[in-house]
Amino acid sequence: MTSPCQSLSAPGELVRELLARRRPGYSLEAPFYLSEALYQVDMEHIFGQHWIFVAVEPQIADAGDYITVDLGVDSILIVRDDEMQIRAFHNVCRHRGTRLCASRQGMVGNIVCPYHQWTYDLAGQLIHAKHMSDDFDLRSHGLKPVHVRSLSGLIFICLAEQAPQDFEQMAAEMTPYIAPHQLSQCKVAAQVDLVENCNWKLTMENNRECYHCVGNHPELTISLYEYGFGYKPDALNIGRLQRFEEILAANHKRWEGMGLPSAEIDTLERRVTGFRTQRLPIDRSGQSQTMSTEVASRKLLADFVEPALGGLSFWTQPNSWHHFMSDHTVNFTVLPISATKTLVRSTWCVHKDAIEGVDYSVENLTSVWNATNEQDRRLVEESQIGIASGAYQPGPYSPFTEGLVEKFCNWYVNRLRALVR
């Protein structure tokens, strides 16, 4: 019997065979989660060709602040330059390839290679290289740039030579939703990295449904309306579903009257840079995603005076989700490490003037999602173990609760069909 992760003679051949067998409405075949060849295809054609969410602007608030992000074998340096513009470069010296910045974050005046001290300014131009010939041209040895964009404080990069142009369309549609929260006027209150022993697609699929939430996420479901994430309508719950729709409509009317767009936009399947957004009410007439459903920070974001602004959710293909509330934001990025290992990075932001221990506590701010992330880690790791078994075969999605999972998989499959030759 063929192993579920056995590769054919070439990755492209394997991909084409799997895509040809793709059954709509069902989970993906095992090699998509197990195969090293498929992992390399994902890094080249998904993470190498699309806009990838990597950070928030408060991580590089001042000139000279930098962060580094690893995408497979590529290390990317993201820096705030002297003009306060965000720049992104391959974190590789143009001399002999040494990694320039080894730390995950820091501050520099100039970017200096630790090997031979080639020196670059914050715009990536080479400004000093000792012991080179008289005709050596500094201008032709600047750092290799990477596409970078900020969407109201959310930083995306793209490694492709030509980045997908529909980012501008997403930015035009999403800016009115996100901008009122003024993320650039926030600070990072906490950041937690969690490594999951699973393929990155299992992490994303798990995020795209709440079929599993009741019974697995007691902390998260305190603040979430279960009906907001799909439910089979039947005689037992039709009244509660209708009541949720009434609550949603009333809150949308109120929030939009305050200048906060709230209606759903869903382009997850039909665009290269797919996304979805919607502002949802917090259960128990709540204010924020906390154990008490009250705000985690008494210092609200921006110029908000009303704490009960619901939770603006924003999902992007292929690797992020975000929640914006009146008092804080929590932003998630998913970065593959290997075919069976994935980094989930969670970042909590509060108003830059909020004082820890006075306006908020980190424990209260992070407790819901720290618990939820750890619960999700166990779930996806068990899925990875099961998929590696010879007994695994793709199973059917629930049409009521797993529609966004299918949209993620359809987007992924369609992008491979378009890119793999």
Automatic annotation (TrEMBL):
Keyword Iron (UniProt): yes
Domain Rieske: 51-157
Cofactor(s) essential for the protein: Fe cation
GO terms of molecular function: 2 iron, 2 sulfur cluster binding; iron ion binding; oxidoreductase activity
Keywords tagged on the record: 2Fe-2S, Iron, Iron-sulfur, Metal-binding, Oxidoreductase
Domain of life of the native organism: Bacteria
PANTHER family in UniProt: CHOLINE MONOOXYGENASE, CHLOROPLASTIC
Descriptive protein name: Rieske (2Fe-2S) domain protein
